[in-house]
Amino acid sequence: MNTDALEKPSESRKIQMQNSVIAELHSDQDWLAAATVLRVLRPQLDIDSFVKDRARLTSEGYRLIGIKVNDEVVAIASYIITPHSSYFRELQIHDMATLEEHQSMGYGSKLLTEIDRIASEQQCGRCFVQSRAERHSAHEFYRKNGYQDYSLGFIKKVG
Q1: What is the secondary structure of 7-73 as a DSSP string?
Q2: Alpha-carbon distance 93 to 91, whole Å?
Q3: Average pLDDT over every residue of 53-75
C-alpha cells in the first residue's frame, strides 16, 4: 500500500493533557520506551527487534502513538490505515497497552479518542480492533468507549 498519499496525522499534532502529551512516536528512544509498555500486552516481545524493525513497519503504514507523562511513555496504541471495499478506508488498531501503574487513569480512553480523530481526518469509515476471547476487561473497555461487538476472529499460522 502506498502510504505517501496519507498524512501522518499525529506527527505535528500534540494534545496537552494534565501533565501529559499524546503524539506519534518516531525516534528509536520513543520506540524503545513504547516497546517496554507493549510488553504489558505482549510479554514475549523482543524489544531490540521491535526497535530495529521500525523502518520496515513505518514504511508499510504502521503508526505508533503514545502518551507521555513527564517525558515517560506510559501508554501506547499502534494502528494501520488500509483501503476497504465498503468503508473507503479502515483504521485497524493493532495494539493498545498502558503501564500497570498508570492503568485506570483514562489514558486508554484518551488514546481511543485520538484514534477516532485520526480515522475521521483520514476519511476512514470505521475503526476496527480485535481482542483475544479471554480478555474480558479489554472487551468492556472497548464497549465503554463506543465500540460494538462485531465478529468472531480466526487465525491460521503459515510459514
Answers
A1: --TTSS--EEETTEEEEE--SHHHHHHHHHHHTTT-TT--HHHHHHTHHHHHHTT-EEEEEEETTEE
A2: 6
A3: 96
Which helix (H) or strand (E) covers residue 77, if one does?
Answer: strand 72-84
70: cell is 513527564
8 A C-beta contact, residue 88 and residue 5: no
**What angle, 0 to 180 degrees and rounded to 10, lies between the N-to-C axes of helices 136-144 and 107-121?**
60
What DSSP letter does each residue of 82-118 carry, written as one string?
A: EEETTTEEEEEEEEEEE-GGGTTSSHHHHHHHHHHHH
Task: Dig out the grid coordinates for 52 from the structure.
Answer: 530495529
> Tens of pLDDT along 97-111?
999 999 999 999 999
C-alpha cell read off for 36: 517496554
Q: What is the mean pLDDT of residues 22-35?
A: 96
pLDDT for the residue numbered 3? 42
- Cell numbers linked to 56: 520496515
Contact 82, 94 (CB under 8 A): no
